[in-house]
Write a structure and sequence with these properties.
Largest sheet: 3 strands, antiparallel
CATH class of the largest domain: Mainly Alpha
Number of helices: 10
Helix content: 55-70%
Number of strands: 3
CATH topology of the largest domain: Serine Threonine Protein Phosphatase 5, Tetratricopeptide repeat
Distance between the termini: 30 Å
Shape: elongated
CATH superfamily of the largest domain: Tetratricopeptide repeat domain
Length: 226
């Protein structure tokens, strides 16, 4: 998880590293269907600024008196991130953290708003653009995702996951040749990327090339079995 700090933008290397982490997290979500909940950013002390303090079990105290919290872990994390954003409204890493949490909770419209705000603050931030592309994919806004994902593969040309997600977006807007090229590149970078191989087969089927498609389906099954 991105930690808030004094440097709003960070180095280009840091942004590239975070973008790569976001892409791998997206691949994890696609492959397993699980939704990891990121930890909240560190705060000053144990409180959240309103006199409440929590233990690790969802309980807490208010002005020294025990209180049972009705909030879920995800809600508490989001509340902490809301406080961090309120305190540092132009802190791009904090906005990205809240967007990731909102996305993990399925609140993609709110996540998109945070990321678009972050992108206005730091247009060159690859981590922000990566996260925004992923959120747009999750919302099914394929055409909106394409320009962001193109920017990502220009910077992260080594990443099979980036190429795969670009292929997904292009496939859904019926740019079949573009989708096929992206899936091919993903599989070149990672020959065991079963999803990219299977997606190539699907596009080849759509292009009325069934023999080639059958070969890719077989390669996909073999890669998945490894």
């Amino acid at each position: 998880m991105i930690k808030p700090g004094n440097d709003r933008h960070g180095s280009a290397r840091d942004r590239a590293r975070v973008a790569a982490e976001l892409l791998e997290e997206a691949r994890f979500l696609t492959d397993t269907g699980e939704t990891p909940i990121p930890m909240p950013p560190p705060s000053n002390g144990n409180g959240n600024g309103n006199g409440h303090h929590h233990d690790g079990n969802g309980n807490g105290t208010r002005n020294g008196h025990p209180v049972r919290s009705s909030l879920s872990d995800a809600d508490r994390i989001l509340a902490d991130l809301d406080g961090a954003v309120a305190a540092q409204p132009e802190n791009v890493p904090v906005l990205v953290d809240r967007a990731k949490q909102l996305g993990a909770m399925g609140r993609y419209s709110a996540a998109r708003a945070d990321l678009e705000r972050a992108l206005l603050l730091d247009p060159a931030n690859l981590a922000v653009r990566t996260a925004l592309g992923i959120v747009l994919l999750r919302k099914g806004l394929w055409a909106d995702a394409v320009p962001h994902l193109r920017e990502v593969v220009q910077e992260e040309s080594w990443s099979p996951t980036a190429w795969f997600y670009l292929g997904e977006a292009l496939n859904h807007i019926d740019d079949l040749e573009g989708a096929l090229a992206a899936y091919v590149r993903a599989a070149e970078l990672d020959p065991r990327h079963a999803k990219a191989l299977h997606a190539q087969g699907m596009v080849l089927d759509r292009l009325h090339r069934p023999e080639e498609a059958a070969l890719l389906y077989r390669r996909s099954r073999e890669a998945a079995a490894r």
